[in-house]
Design a protein that fits this description.
This protein is an all-alpha fold and 235 residues long. The chain has helices at residues 2-14, 48-59, 63-84, 92-108, 116-132, 145-155, 158-161, 165-179, 183-199, 205-214, 219-234.
Length: 235
């Protein structure tokens, strides 16, 4: 069934529709929770300075969306730790259950247009798709994603929606690495990102990466495009 599920998810992504299989209430794969971390807490590599920032952000999200975020966070920790230890990455069952539990919920969920929840949902779809659904060099693209994401980002107000500066950095970096490809979109994003970088007193890629790691990040996939976009933005 793996191929059927991946095809179902890929088709939903490319057509901006909902998957055929399952609903958010009957997805057969359970989400990993914070209490079921894939790594012992003492082994998790999280920068404490940004942990509070991340928790404030999660507390402001819809509870079901926050649960999906938590599950993806556990998966990211597992991959990053495996890479650091030069281990075989992920056993098939863990990969498939993570893909099914996370992607089906994300593609079925819908929140109010322009809300923080919908902006985060779109960002998660863009972040997770290359990890779970990309075949070889074939990139899956939702043709409406860039338009909807830019509209959502532009409508957010940090003071009103509760998103922290670190959360905005993550949202913008996902836009720069995974969503925006048109020059106009990229130029618009860079202007906003430069302001936020200055607000957060970030002067190096290492500082930026620490913040991104405290949210969601897989270095094996995103370090190269992330660093390239960051350097292109600040220089």
């Amino acid at each position: 069934m793996q191929k059927h599920h991946r095809c179902d998810l890929a088709l939903a992504l490319q057509t901006s529709s909902k998957p055929i299989f399952f609903t958010p209430d009957n997805v057969p794969w359970k989400l990993a929770s914070a209490r079921e971390a894939v790594l012992p807490l003492h082994e998790m590599k999280i920068t404490n300075d940004f942990q509070i920032d991340t928790q404030i952000f999660l507390d402001g999200l819809d509870s079901q969306l926050a649960a999906v975020w938590t599950a993806m966070s556990q998966f990211c920790s597992l991959v990053n730790d495996a890479v650091e230890r030069d281990m075989h990455l992920i056993v098939d069952q863990v990969f498939l259950s993570s893909m099914g539990s996370i992607m089906y919920r994300l593609l079925h969920f819908r929140f109010k247009a322009g809300s923080l929840d919908e902006t985060v949902r779109l960002a998660l779809v863009a972040f997770c798709s290359p990890i779970f659904l990309q075949w070889q060099n074939i990139k899956l693209v939702d043709p409406s994603l860039a338009h909807n994401y830019r509209k959502s980002l532009a409508g957010l107000n940090a003071l009103r929606c509760g998103a922290t500066p670190g959360a905005f950095l993550w949202l913008m970096m996902i836009g720069g690495t995974s969503i925006f490809h048109e020059p106009d979109d990229i130029a618009w994003l860079k202007t906003w990102l430069r302001r936020t970088i200055k607000l957060c007193s970030i002067s190096s890629w290492d500082q930026m990466r620490d913040i991104l790691n405290s949210f969601l990040w897989i270095g094996l996939i995103y370090d190269k495009p992330g660093q390239d976009f960051f350097k292109n933005c600040v220089h």
